[in-house]
Amino acid sequence: QVQLVESGGGLVQAGGSLRLSCVASGSIFSIDVMGWYRQAPGKQRELVATITSGGRTTYADFVKGRVTISRDNAKNTVYLQMNTLKPEDTAVYYCNAARVVAAVRYDYWGQGTQVTVSS
What we know:
The chain is mainly beta. It is 0% helix and 60% strand.
């Protein structure tokens, strides 16, 4: 099992910045990839960014150039630095950890942290 705890959300004006943190505990040695997803009211959860155990990153097109995902292995923490925030970035942001065993993916989720961007 993997436990994830997010922090860093809040209210920010458009154009501002926030840094989200996700601390992982438990069977973290088994994690293959970690990422951030978000879900706005009335919308499906969508991928924001991922980072593999080897440090390879991917980003959704709607955040490219504005968001950086990083990890501190010594602290078992993944960060999401978000800059130039827009009102449409308002959502609950969820940390995700995934491992693949015998071609089966197992996902673990944090409780989410609210990000609200005012215009």
